[in-house]
Fold this sequence. Notes:
Blueprint: E1 2-8, E2 11-17, E3 22-26, E4 33-34, E5 45-51, E6 59-65, E7 72-74, E8 77-79, E9 81-83, E10 89-92, E11 95-101, H1 117-122, E12 128-132, E13 141-144, E14 148-152, E15 157-163, E16 166-171, E17 185-186, E18 189-190, E19 196-197, E20 203-206, E21 209-215
Parallel strand pairs: 3-4
Antiparallel strand pairs: 1-2, 1-11, 3-5, 5-6, 6-9, 7-8, 7-10, 10-11, 12-13, 12-21, 14-15, 15-16, 16-19, 17-18, 17-20, 20-21
Amino acid sequence: MAKLLLCLEGVVLREFPLDRESLTIGRKAQSDIQIDDITISSKHAVIKVEKNAYMDNIKDVYVEDLGSTNGTLVNGQRIKKHMLRHGDVILLGRHEFKFLDEDAPDFEKTMIVNPDAEKLKTRALLPAAVKLLTGPKAGHTLDIVKSYTTMGNAGSNVIISKRANGYFVAHVRPKGVVVVDMPPTLNGGPINAQSTPLNDHDVIEIAGMKLEFFLKT
């Protein structure tokens, strides 16, 4: 049977057997595979399982983009509709899907072994929060409990993401918005669109506001 492995930064998060004719992927709860990632559209892509035109016992698997904002890539190439082959990697936003076909001649069962799976079950992520260091509300704290927490304003904001392997920060600049504030910084250095790991007591500055990220032990 063919299957998809959902991965984030090299860690396998979930496995989806392709035992249905179609699986929709998106950010909204109505999707068959829901991914809480703002870089993924509400209706991003669909996986289709179709009978082979020449062989009844063979099924072809396709991935089709549904007009998503950031597109769907297969092996680094942007696609509209693509027939999947064993080992193909689908990129949607920050997440990857690896396509495995157990019926493929070169399939190796060792490929699906995930040594981190048991660690993910037992590893507890410490709770975290940010504390305001400046302004009239200095000293106030905000717990980081959501998968994604946005801070700042439309012209200069950051997103703190909570993942199985830690906390990360990235600068997100909405399309069509003119940035008038200074770019956000982490410990004095620029924050870009690529996620950067956060460490205990890191200082984030957004539009003149300073916050301290800390782990709650």
